[in-house]
Design a protein that fits this description.
globular; disordered C terminus
């Protein structure tokens, strides 16, 4: 009994000693130290008017505390959720602070003029009930007059907060609205408009229909009041506070009087609006010149008239012409006439007025004499979207005949215009063109014979589109998908290694490369075949593609990148209509084996004794793990891009700087260990050649000291579409070889 009592007393003492220790341990936090971390990599690059959502993580004990976002610059605005909106070009440091812990990220705001189609707004912050005008500029068509009504504006996010009537946006609810513009198959940058609740105090916001006017031209003033119920515009007056000699105001109309600038304010009682500045320029000074020619193809001794139009038309100043290239082929005669010299070649001409230079046109001088018996006219496209162009080509019989062709509309001149041998599409509708030399006419060329039709995706949301995704089924389908940033090809995740065909034919121990190129009649569809010569996929020009196989096929077929690629190496998925399918990079690849000795020399590459210009593009994978400098990560999660180590490297231009069109003169390689090793694309599904390079040769990854790149492995060109039965027979024999040892039987069979 005493032993039991002693045992119980001992247990009690142990409990009394241990319990406080256990309690202390449980009450202590042994988690990692407190931290706050912004998840995006610094710096972030966004364009004016666009937005980007910052994400963060923090230690568990900070999650319930208030998060405070701050910016040190007015070039961006950041709200309480971490959404940043770019307001002006500049650099800002955005800081997230929770309790006494913080993290920062660098944000660069760039000029949206880098976009081919530039979208902007008169204001980026408005009130409910207020309206603003959207503005669009097609940078690549600076030399053309384009009406505002050819641009199509679309709300991509926040349709419940605003209504869009042509180019006028009207706020109807507090929130954020994202907008893009399209011109044919060209897509603009995305801008963000913030719509605010009406305040209890009146706020006057002054704007103008034009901020730059000619002398004698008129700009209309508009003043918005923040309180809808108190919007008596009769109480509004407009005053010039500086520059009264340059303009006058009558009611809400500003008229330019003389060159200068004028500052204007709106007033309602004691309340003043913001101040706006309108610039008045001289109507007599030429702002732009548009140059055309009466003929673009001339025989020796033949002449053509140059036609230069100044804008504004009332502008004064003498027009002069300059031959910028090919002075040997043509001569200037008189004030606006050119004459072709002997010999054939291309000359380029511009018009000038002071410092203003026109667009450049090409004049082709051709050899030959006498009318042809036949003219064969072709076009590289039979279907061509608004904003795009088709290129004409022709041949004459006999070849010694005159070639000074003139292209003429049979009908459809309201839907397009012609400069040289290019037809620029301005409206959806049929076009018929013929070529004429002397009194001989060519065959007719029909473009857009039937209307391309209505956009089937204009009212489809991204979620609706991808909820039941299917591949594009033709070129027009792909065309409309790309207008909205919708994919045309497979969206399956791409692993780092290429998927190899079970059968990759060889001859004499070398892989065969398919030498056939199979296009549709209009050249807009490329038919991908397998190793047996059977068509297994269709790639559409202008479509969006992300998988290795389809991107390789696209570049190989069309010599350019798919629509979802940007040529830059940095971009924000949040500001792109392609979102998580955005892909980067189409830049020059030097192949510099002096600076990068671990890289193998690619065939005929410029800089290593060759003539071909190679370019590189990113391939988005689920992660590459060959190079520790590039940790495995999903390429694009919809918020940010981790480029990884996977690239396609391909020949883009020949020694003369011309695009390589013949598939048998092209090379395309894939590397997923950042240029250490390559495999050649063999122009069929799953056709990838033998790997060669540094790791293959036993070198150390990306090492400038321990390297041993093996050489390019030659291939044999063969037309797979001509001898698919041969490949099937070889495959059958190969299968038998793995099962039957009686070689005499195989020899007799094969």
């Amino acid at each position: 009994m005493n032993k039991i009592k002693k045992f119980l007393k001992l247990r009690l003492k142990i409990f009394i000693i241990i319990f406080p220790i256990v309690f202390l341990l449980v009450s202590c936090d042994f988690s990692s130290q407190n931290y706050v971390r912004i998840l995006q990599d610094s710096p972030i690059e966004i364009s004016i008017g666009s937005s980007f959502q910052l994400d963060y993580e923090c230690s568990s004990n900070l999650k319930e505390k208030e998060s405070i976002w701050q910016s040190n610059s007015e070039c961006i605005q950041v709200d309480e959720s971490g959404l940043i909106i770019a307001k002006d070009v500049g650099r800002a440091i955005v800081t997230l602070k929770i309790d006494n812990y913080s993290d920062s990220i660098d944000v660069h705001v760039i000029d949206t003029s880098i976009y081919e189609l530039e979208l902007s707004a008169s204001k980026y912050d408005i009130y409910i009930g207020e309206s603003i005008k959207l503005n669009c500029r097609l940078n690549s068509f600076e030399d053309q007059d384009i009406n505002d009504n050819v641009f199509n504006y679309q709300i991509t996010y926040g349709r419940e907060y605003a209504d869009l009537n042509s180019d006028i946006l009207i706020g109807k609810g507090a929130g954020i609205v994202k907008i893009i513009a399209t011109y044919g198959n060209i897509i603009s940058n995305e801008i963000v408009i913030t719509i605010h609740e009406r305040t209890s105090e009146e706020v006057l916001t002054l704007s103008a229909s034009k901020y730059e006017i000619y002398v004698g031209e008129v700009s209309e003033l508009t003043c918005d009041i923040s309180i809808v119920s108190n919007s008596d515009m009769q109480d509004i007056i407009y005053e010039i506070i500086d520059g009264a000699n340059s303009a006058s105001i009558y009611d809400n109309l500003v008229t330019g009087l003389s060159v200068g600038q004028v500052n204007i304010v709106a007033k309602k009682g004691d309340l003043n609006s913001n101040i706006i500045t309108i610039r008045v320029i001289d109507a007599l000074i030429t702002q732009k010149i548009e140059l055309r020619a009466s003929k673009y193809y001339l025989s020796s001794g033949e002449s053509a008239m140059l036609i230069a139009t100044k804008y504004p038309e009332s502008a004064t100043g003498k027009i002069t012409y300059e031959i910028t290239k090919g002075k040997y082929y043509i001569s200037l005669s008189g004030t606006n006439q050119i004459i072709a010299n002997s010999g054939g070649g291309i000359a380029t001409i511009v018009a000038k007025c002071g410092d203003i230079v026109s667009n450049e046109i090409e004049i082709t001088t051709v050899k030959g004499s006498g009318n042809p018996t036949n003219i064969s006219l072709t076009s590289n496209k039979q279907i061509c979207g608004v904003g795009d162009f088709a290129t004409l080509d022709y041949a004459v019989t006999p070849v010694s005949a005159a070639k000074n062709i003139e292209f003429i509309f049979n009908f459809g001149e309201k839907n397009a215009y012609i400069i040289g041998n290019k037809i620029y599409i301005t409206n959806d509708g049929p076009i018929c063109i013929v070529g004429k030399i002397g009194n001989v006419y060519s065959n007719e060329i029909l473009i857009n014979e039937t209307s391309i039709g209505d956009d089937p995706y204009k009212d489809i949301t991204e979620q609706e589109f991808y909820s039941n995704y299917s591949l594009a089924n033709n070129y027009i389908d792909a065309y409309y998908r790309s207008l909205h940033g919708f994919m045309s090809g497979s969206i399956e995740p791409q692993k780092q290694e290429p998927t190899l065909s079970k059968y990759r034919p060889k001859e004499n121990g070398l892989y065969l490369r398919n030498s056939s190129a199979n296009y549709s009649a209009d050249g807009n569809t490329y038919y991908v075949i397998d190793s047996y010569g059977n068509i297994v996929n269709e790639i559409y020009k202008g479509g969006g593609y992300v998988t290795l196989e389809e991107v390789a096929s696209y570049i190989f077929a069309f010599g350019e990148v798919p629509a979802n690629y940007t040529e830059r190496k940095t971009a924000d998925p949040n500001t792109s209509i392609w979102g998580k399918y955005l892909r980067l990079n189409n830049t020059y690849f030097s192949g510099d084996t002096i600076q990068y000795p671990y890289e193998p020399v690619l065939p005929n590459i410029r800089g290593c004794g060759g003539e071909l210009y190679y370019y590189e593009v990113d391939i988005g994978t689920t992660g590459t793990n060959c190079d520790p400098k590039y940790p495995p990560a999903n390429y694009n999660n919809g918020y940010s891009i981790s480029r990884g180590a996977a690239r396609i490297v391909y020949t883009r231009y020949d020694a003369n700087g011309d695009k390589i069109m013949d598939v048998n003169e092209k090379y395309l390689f894939y590397t997923y260990n950042h240029y250490n090793d390559f495999q050649e694309y063999l122009n069929y599904q799953g056709g990838w050649g033998e790997m060669f390079g540094n790791i293959t040769g036993g070198g150390e990854i990306s090492s400038s000291t321990n390297y041993n790149p093996t050489s390019y492995v030659q291939v044999i060109f063969k037309n797979f579409t001509d001898n698919s039965s041969y490949h099937m027979n070889v495959e059958y024999c190969y299968a038998l070889l793995t099962q039957i040892k009686r070689k005499e039987f195989l020899f007799g069979l094969c």
